[in-house]
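note to self — DONT lose this again. spent like an hour looking for the file last time. sequence + predicted structure for the chain T wanted, 248 res
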Amino acid sequence: MALRPVQVNIKALDNSAIGRFWAEALGWGLSSEAPGVSNVEPTGDFVWPDAAALCVDVVKVPEPKSATKNRVHIDLATTSLAHQAELVERLKSLGATPADVGQGDVPWTVLADPEGNEFCVLEPRETYRDTGPIAAVVVDCVDPRAMARFWDEATDWTLREVTDDHAVLRSSQGVGPYLEFLRSSDPKTVPDRVHIDLLPYRGQPAAAEADRVRALGATDLDLGQGDVRWTCLSDPEGHEFCVLGGPS
């Protein structure tokens, strides 16, 4: 039994505008499965779910982003320094703005989407040469080792590296982006604006999978979601995630 990460969920005041931004940023297609939801995913022969890509779902909410830095963000991959510079300029033309999260003098560029969600445009790195446009989903945490234990057991992704300062997981198929946990001293003070959605495999009941991750240390979360076809939970450090599927 295991869950697979299938998409990054981003909350937005204007899901259509933020959906368009991320579709243009990633070079992916844009659709809508329901009012207030914008779905961003690869075009061509891509069939969801596929470990080769974490799609992006932008979901309309009434609350604007707070001034607090998101504890979950997306890193974008580039193939050369010229590509990095070109991508940064293109993203700015789409409405991204420079963001200062205390990064100092680093080789990557920190930007924010039009509603202030921070993300990074990385300098070219061999590690991310085959990930697609999303290099990694990065999570700030207090204890990367504890996060590695939970997410390694909760999902079917493989733990690639773990130290006191960071932990790295990737699909067991060796494709798509990475999931990275970075040590941070900043406490969690507001609900995450960005989170990961997990999907059971066919034949594995979502309710049973939710119970399994509760046994690993996840806790139930009430965000006012009401009667929905997913289960809202948080990991042992309070990062929100959803287990998709199950009866409404």
